[in-house]
Amino acid sequence: MPKIGFGLVGCGMIAAFHARAINDIRGAGVVALFTSKPANAAKVAEIVGDCAIYTDYEKFLKHPGLDIVNICTPSGAHLEPAVAAAAAGKHVVVEKPLEITLARCDALIAACRKRGVQLCTIFPSRFSPANRVLKEAIDAGRFGTLTLGDTYVKWWRTQHYYDGGGWRGTWKLDGGGAYMNQAIHNVDLLQWFMGDVAEVTGMTATLAHQRIEVEDTGVAAVRFNNGALGVIEAATSAFPGLLKKTEIHGTQGTVIVEQDDVLLWQFEPAARQDAAIRKKFARRIGGGGASDPKAISYAGHREQLKDFVKAVRTGGRPFVDGEEGRKSVEIILAIYQASRTGQAVKLPLKLPVPSASRR
Predict the structure, then answer these.
(1) The listed CATH number (3.40.50.720, 1.10.600.10, 3.20.20.80, 3.40.720.10) that belongs to domain 4-124+298-321
(2) What is the CATH topology of the domain spanning 125-292+328-345?
(3) Could you tell me if 341 and 334 are in contact, meaning their C-beta atoms sit under 8 angstroms apart?
(4) pTM surpassing 0.90?
(5) Angle (CA) 146 151 157, round 5°
(6) Tens of pLDDT along 92-121?
């Protein structure tokens, strides 16, 4: 079976996680890098070994053996390189968020669909074994009637974090703050667990940082289509940074997952596997990026990219495709709109969505 060739677009911090993940996938490898900063590309090349480095995107897309292009640029700069890659017949992997507006998400999805190439959005938390077993319990109906779904991302980022990356904390390229950049993983998880969101209210603020345009603190209340309620809290203002947590409640059960540990797993009636699940997921995982964005594992990226390679080889659907990646962006944009207007916002949003920067 021929080797699957990956190319990375953008060689900042997250590209290194993609590189390490691809190194662990049998039958795959990084064959090319595209960057505007060759020094950054050299650091990524040290991880993957021999590969070509380009500063010309058209030449990069013509590299022999290039099958999949991973977009690792700032969030608001995903669309253009992704569309060009799709037009060149390359399958496309896009780091979260898929894009920062629904119009740009839709254009990206349409470009891949038109060319018949695969598209996935990076949400490695869906590949966490603890989150997978929680999803299985929900799908099996073990919670009875779902009543509450809450998620909390109370992280800490220094002022240097924002000052050190010119695009961070801007509406144009970050697309938002603690919700769009950090908590989006848990926003995705919550809607995956609880189902589509019907309505949100919310408030956001910038309390702990200077020289940023976006929120570092936010709270939102959610009503899901199934009638359940929930809360989404997001912060980069909570020193020293806490592990992210998701709580799912129903009339017959409650599960609390902190990072990738199960803190509570209780159902009525109980099942034979419950004790084994509690034991398996009782270990301590670690910081998970709560105060250091580099302190994350690449294991979730590896599992998601393995799933994408399988979809490319078989023509199947990636586990987190473009349409799935769009959902969390829509929820976050609704929270921003609710914060700006002081009113509840119903989903789906009507296009075009007003710019969050007009607050």
Answers:
(1) 3.40.50.720
(2) Dihydrodipicolinate Reductase; domain 2 (3.30.360)
(3) no
(4) yes
(5) 175
(6) 999 999 999 999 999 999 999 999 999 999
